[in-house]
Amino acid sequence: MKMKFNFISSSVLDGKPLNKRISFILNKVKDGTILVTDGVMKPDEEMALIKETMRRVDTGFPGIEVASLKKPTKGLQKVVESMSDQSDRIRKYLSILTGTKMKTSSLKTGLTLIGPAKYIKNIKKNPNSFSVLTEV
Amino acid sequence: MNFKDFLDWFYKFFGLKRNIRLGIYGETNVGKTTLANRISLDWTGEEVGKVSSVPHETRFVQRKEKVQLKLNKKKIILNLLDMPGLATKIDYKSFLKYGLSKKEAKKRAREATEGIIEAIKWLGNVDTVLAVMDSSRDPFTQVNITLLGNLEARKIPVIIVANKIDKKGAKPQMIREAFPGYPTVEVSALKGKNMDDLYKSIARYAK
């Protein structure tokens, strides 16, 4: 059997609101594709991904395997990142208050691999790398 | 100041006691229910839930309310919340090797997915979390990283519980190395080892 890898730029995902971003990811993964992108989701977005995955689990789709490597941030970059998190929170509250959809923030710099658990048997992680074992 | 901070301030200001909702989170089969049972047995004499070697035994949030810890002069009232194990995948076929029928396995898988969704929803309603990890397993998993990242972002106090230190090959120091900066307590919930250290940590960090 063949296995498809899809390397996509984080800018493709950045333009989408979270629910559409998650749907995009899960639709690809459910089709058997392994997605690799140059960005890292925020922890709450990852939890939302797990939650949505659980809703979609069925006999043919047992779920996903995820591994990500976040680029360590230091000094000014860390401050900017923290400010970005705060502005996301404000955007979220404003979105709830006004009932309008606001553009979600961009992914953090790093690397993420998301694939179907049916084919990815194990991911061995350490802080600076990860290795993936597949079985088709 | 968020609502939870305001409530903390309010209760403290008026000298009122508030029950701390202590969520017990972690991957499957790391000993969350064994730990919940141990804490509950130590302070109330009653268990919280059933323990099993079959993954996803806990598929609904199990509660034990008003567990009163007395440590020196300090009293803490806990509402224990034993959460279903977190996972990114649930394959019903994995339950078949434990002797479950296909129908039972599918039912268990469906309930387990619902349990995970419920556990994630509860993250917004817990005051403090015990993040339980199995000392004999690799702790550096995406589920553990995601869980700790979420707790940090929500500013929820967390104590890492390096459980199963009685197991052959247990390496609790791997957990400390993987997640430095978090208060970590090494215990065996099954044998009741080092539980006093955990209670001291709860008294120190829970709020």
Q: Which structural class do you get from the secondary structure elements of chain A?
A: alpha+beta
Distance linking N and C termini of chain B = 15 Å
Q: Over the alpha carbons, how many angstroms does the gyration radius of chain A reach?
A: 16 Å
**Helical content band of chain A:** 40-55%
Mean pLDDT, all residues of chain A: 85
Largest interface: A-B, 27 and 28 residues
Question: Any descriptors?
Answer:
heterodimer, A: 136 residues, alpha+beta, 4-stranded mixed beta sheet, two-stranded antiparallel ribbon, 4 helices, 31% strand, globular, B: 207 residues, alpha/beta, 6-stranded mixed beta sheet, 7 helices, 6 strands
Provide structural commentary.
- The complex is a heterodimer of chains A (136) and B (207).
- Chain A is of the alpha+beta class.
- Helices cover 41% and strands 31% of the residues of chain A.
- Chain A contains four helices and six strands, in the order βααβαβαβββ.
- In chain A, the strands form two sheets. Chain A has a four-stranded mixed β-sheet with strand order 1-2-4-3.
- In chain A, α2 packs across α3 (43-56).
- The longest helix of chain A has 24 residues, at 75-98.
- The radius of gyration of chain A is 16 Å and the shape is globular.
- The relative contact order of chain A is 0.22.
- With 207 residues, chain B is α/β, with parallel strands linked by helices.
- Chain B is built from seven helices and six strands; from the N terminus they run αβαββααβαβαβα.
- Chain B has helices at 3-13, 32-44, 93-96, 102-122, 142-153, 172-178, 195-205, and strands spanning 20-26, 62-71, 74-82, 128-134, 158-163, 184-186.
- In chain B, strands 2-3-1-4-5-6 form a six-stranded mixed β-sheet, with helices on both faces.
- Chain B is globular.
- At the A-B interface, α3, β3 and β5 of A face α4 and α5 of B.
